[in-house]
Sequence to fold (616 residues):
Amino acid sequence: MAKKFIIGVDLGGTNLKIALLDLKYRIKDKNILSTQVCLKKENLISTIADAINKIIENNRIKRTDILGIGLGLPGPVDIKRGLVHFLPNIAGYTEVNFAQILKRRLGLPVSLDNDANLMCLAEYKLGAAKGFKNIVCLTLGTGVGGGIIIEGKLYRGSNDAGGEIGHIPINERGPRCNCGGIACLETYIGNNSILREARRLFRRDISLEELSSLAKKPDKRAQALWSKIGGRLGVALVGVVNLLNPDCIVIGGGVAGAGKILFARLREVISRQAMSVQSRHLKIVKARLGNNAGLIGAAILVKERVRL
Amino acid sequence: MAKKFIIGVDLGGTNLKIALLDLKYRIKDKNILSTQVCLKKENLISTIADAINKIIENNRIKRTDILGIGLGLPGPVDIKRGLVHFLPNIAGYTEVNFAQILKRRLGLPVSLDNDANLMCLAEYKLGAAKGFKNIVCLTLGTGVGGGIIIEGKLYRGSNDAGGEIGHIPINERGPRCNCGGIACLETYIGNNSILREARRLFRRDISLEELSSLAKKPDKRAQALWSKIGGRLGVALVGVVNLLNPDCIVIGGGVAGAGKILFARLREVISRQAMSVQSRHLKIVKARLGNNAGLIGAAILVKERVRL
Fold:
């Protein structure tokens, strides 16, 4: 039997990643494009189709050896119908059937899911949450995304829209969120809020990377800011822990790189404020698959759907 | 084949209920004792065993025709081992193996679970949430309990301690909760908090029943108080809706009787603040099985464990 492959696609607000993976989820080739440049030049779906064709040709792979295409999208999706309801950070894609359009263009089966769900699936099957059963997975970035594994299976909710940890309110009153909510976790710990607080604190523009290295120096103000972020994340997760009693929480994304202070404060809040039976055996770990988690998750999705 | 029966037991902070049910979950006989009186007079487990023996004898049922005993307890439990970790409102029962003790005394199989989980199971199988798939169930009382059905199955969490909706924080700062948490939902909408707010508002002691009838008159202050309670419950449930994307939320317990104002405000907050894909098709309904939900859930637990 010839070797089989899967194409993984991870669409983000910043980057569009296309990868060729084998059935052991090893990345054999990968291309990264700028989402914004693609949007300016032409239709996004055409760009994705062209990029997929290119990676297939460059690697001289027969179409019959490709199991399918897995696609991670940064917005709420309808898994069965293969469409995206809307993309909060990419205008112009409302109720668009990505799966059908790509399938027609490429003649290959297409599966899609929310990007945070795919990251969660990857960390569960191959990453930091391997061996656990009830898992909550977060990605900290411009948005705060999440995914949930229940009894070893990705839980998507009644309308494929569950897992939105970033949109748990942590106060009755507070900043208005882009989602329409009030005082959502994301309004406090999304990258833009962190940068805004840092600017106020240091009276100049400061990047997340600099904020992280300042904290390591150690700079007291930077440390206090990361600790505050960890505390706020902790309040939302106390609710999640009491509600879902998971055995593992995985935290990934850029801000997770801030490291020790954020995790220390987060663990402190959970061990002090969450209920004892739920928090006693809980593991809180850093994501392990980094930027490739979405691509790997997309490949897992394809393989699990097309049982060989 | 002789007719078979199940014994359901529902232990609450106020009442201890024992019922005889048939396999269609119809209650054939029921006794209600005062939990506090039982505690003063003798050991609680002896009282439960005696009450079970009495209901069996009074109904002239052979022990071989009893499928088992189902027991709902108001605290965190270990289902497999059959023990309760502790009972927040009944002192002196830490890590007590109710199932083993009762089984030894009665010579009948015993299953146990958290009382809110059993209420949830009952409302799902026979009550307000019948036909739904992903359900969140709340009981509003002295404590605010909850249960979760995921993909048609009771979800208990990694340590049988999930579903604690009453212990989701709705603010970063706020009142200290009995559970050790800060600003838990229960500290705002548990019966004692409602009574305290009502006393401040009306400058006298006032019961929940009076507060409900005042609201119907309509008394503006009582209406404003119920609306405030609905709003606070709404904030916690916005988080639950965004996280779990359930298709149905069931609300039961005494306070749910306050009726229209509470539900109206709750629905308003969820439709305005929860994410649109999650809230669009969500049903929010009143529990239908009332005080018998726990007993019926206990019987379902027994029947589902002892498959005939």
